Amino acid sequence: MTKATVAILRTTPGTVIEDYQKLCELAGIDKALDPAATTILKDNITWHHVFPGVNTTPWQLEGTILALKNAGFDHLAAVHNHTVVTLPEKGEAELKFKPIYEKFNIPVLFNFKDEHMKWVEYKPKFKTLALHKIFPKGIRIPDYFAGKNIVHLPTVKTHSYTTYTGALKNAFGGLLNYRRHYTHTWIHETLVDLLAIGKEIHPGMFATMDGTTAGSGPGPRTVVPHDKHIILAAADQVAIDSVAARLMGFAWKKLPCIALSHEHGLGIGDPAEIEIIGDTDAVNENWNFKVGVNLATGVGRLLWHTPLKHIQKLFFHTPLVNIFIFASELYHDKAWYKTKGKKIVKKWENESPWGKLFASYRK
Fold first, then answer.
1. pLDDT for residue 259 is more than 70
2. Strands (DSSP E) along the chain, which ranges?
3. Residue 316 included in any domain
4. pTM for the whole thing?
5. Domain region containing 115
6. How many domains does the chain have?
7. Is the pLDDT score of 311 beyond 70?
8. Which of helix, strand or coil describes residue 164?
């Protein structure tokens, strides 16, 4: 089997824009995407609040856009999604994406707005592992995605449900509608199915991953930020996730979405079959990240990954789900962010070189 290539660079706030362009060139962005197709930028708004290590960074977005333009990809469009607990319009403003999209004249679309795209039934050629059971009435995807390249822009962080989150998880928001929480019990199999669908509908796929400030602990939102000064890029979504997981201290075989994707020939998860280019010694770092839970994700684990999962339809497929949506918002936005999160953000912006860079961007 042909080896996958993952580019990795150490970077600084003073060079990060240029480094992202070099990174994407090393990773073969010009060969990974179809020059005749529009390219979707799928940024990661995990939380509509600013929090280090959680969301696509402005420099990641800007550097990736410049790399695409350098390679001749001028037809770009951003697509946002929403979840039951995330407000994309607020996130786009707070995370300082909007001025960047305006600077490069990139249209911003929303996969939940009918005037931008419709959700249509899609029958995968791949024998799905989970989606056909979760959505027996049919799997639906946004019609806009078919025939377009996609570039995912996740960050390097842990996740209370999937151990880590990266390029594979980034497709979760784009290709599934707001009922995506139905899939959490079978989240790893779902991510494999979505990767297979992505490979069927997108003529080209690519990912950049930002680890300038990475997140450990009870992710994907209430992480502990660590400045790691690392950025990654690859055409192979499985390979980049495998390398990022290795940096965080996780074995690829113990991450079912990576192992299953590798087993089904959807990408390369085995480090022995991945060629590292760039700052090759960086891949030997081990950050010893730990996965944690907070109050909200702890309740989620109970309802999705214990015997209680057998009655999850009662909680999540009925109006009772609104109780959990309200509780999550109350915990994350009203309690945790106001009492702890803002202090962490302030310290990051005052003391971290990456926080200072973020503060310098125009809102």
1. yes
2. 4-10, 39-43, 76-80, 108-110, 119-121, 140-142, 149-153, 155-159, 163-165, 205-216, 224-234, 274-278
3. no
4. 0.92
5. 4-293
6. 1
7. no
8. strand
